[in-house]
Specification:
35% of the residues lie in helices and 28% in strands. The protein is of the alpha+beta class and 358 residues long. The chain has three domains: 161 residues, Nucleotidyltransferase, domain 5, CATH 3.30.420; 99 residues, Nucleotidyltransferase, domain 5; 62 residues, Actin, Chain A, domain 4. The strands form five sheets. Strands 3-2-1-9-10-19 form a six-stranded mixed β-sheet, with helices on both faces. A five-stranded mixed β-sheet has the order 13-12-11-17-18, sandwiched between helices. Strands 5-4-6 form a three-stranded antiparallel β-sheet. α5 crosses α11. The chain starts with 21 loop residues before the first strand and ends with a strand.
Amino acid sequence: MFGFLSKINWEAFPKIPFLSSIQLYFDLGTSNTRIAIKNKGVVLKEPTYLGINAKTKKSIFFGQEAKIILGKTPEFIKIMRPINNGIIFDFDAEVSLLHFFMKKSIAPYFHQGYLIKPPIKALTAFPLIATEIEQKAVEEALNKAGCYSITMIDKPLATAAGCGIDVYTNKPHMIVDMGGGIIEISIVGSGGIVSSKTLKNAGEAMDKIISNYVYLKHGVILGESAGEKLKTTILNFAGEDKLQLIRGKSLETGLPKSVKIKTDEIKEALLTSFSQIGETIKELIEISPPETVEEVFNEGIYLAGGLTGILGIDNYFSEELKTKIIISSSFKEATINGLIELDKKPNMINNLTSFKTN
């Protein structure tokens, strides 16, 4: 009697949005913002830049588009960085950026069988230096962007999970997350942070140091993106001597001037920065319990974050610290991958939660 029901393509019918929600993961980095969807993976990776028309107060450029035009716009267009050192610096700008990113990356999925937009749940991480007020700002920004439920955990735990570490075991692991805004050095274990230290001489600070070095040594004023280009193209600790032609403005004449920069020059400029990272790791080891130190050194130290991509960085720290250095295959996306991994154990993640709202 009801045999015809088996012939109906039920997948063509719209789902009822109130029966299920969409789980999102956010890595709100200083340099890049990443968004992932449960069972679909990372769907967006964009620079954390925003362009605002100062006359109309409207946001007109977002992400990669805003970064490309940095330094090339008229006075009434202001390029902003909503997040500074891992912390929301401009709340309204961050909300505007999140609105655009979610519309760009997530909205297409709303039309795949949904009558209306389903409720959105968010899982994100925050740096250890964030105060309770700064954590609340992240929660409110995501809420205004359209998320009804926000869960937040310590960033080192997410990054460690993204490096393949089981953060729930009682075995301690050291993770050094070298991002664009901050460098977080942490020992994690038993679902928490055993000890940690944070540095602000991260990737973007190094870009400025390189630009200042070229200015002082060669008398050339570089644009904001030139320092990053030199760092990513010729800096390495593998013994390779590379050469990069960079163009800037002459300090003497004010006219365009090109100079050739060598790998050794970039290493000289950043020697103090990398030495400080090594010294801070040693300081963290000194204040940690002996049993923890022994297990950490037996296991090795994990590296994550954008600076991990520098060729030979593992050998540099291995020689400095006299231990094994482990680099994750997806070091740039360790945090967002870690959030996805941790969400696979919803009962356990409640033990990691620092802030949760429904």
